[in-house]
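U., I forgot to send this yesterday:
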Amino acid sequence: MRATLTGRAARAGTIAAVVSGIPSTVHALLTGRDVLAATRAAGTLLPRRHDQPGVAAGLVAHFVVSTAWTCVLATIARHHRIGAGGGALAGLAIAAFDLGIVARAYPAVRALPRGPQILDHLVFGAVAGALLDRPHGTDQDTTSTTSPGFSEL
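Result:
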């Protein structure tokens, strides 16, 4: 079960990390802003880069942060169903922490438009929560047509 959960968490985290930037990217395109501003700002989260935004560093930082939050959500998903709705709520809680507390120390992140960043977090949580969700009615990672305690031959 652990290997399957780990694989599911890696898949969920990867997909959620990729699609989570859609709201801020669309906002940037619609408002004529720099579509890479959020990526560059994320680069300042890395050690010794506080005043050095950059795209490559931003991609690394986004990967690290997304992986960390996916691990938190995957740990919760081992014991509780999350789903898209619970994931969206988790995304809002993550946004409150990331943007309300952590961003205080990072001017480049603080300078980003808040609404699109909150939506990015909401999308991340909803997608990760949906993809981490366990099957209904079982503690197993897969469903089976056999009775509990019996395996198929």
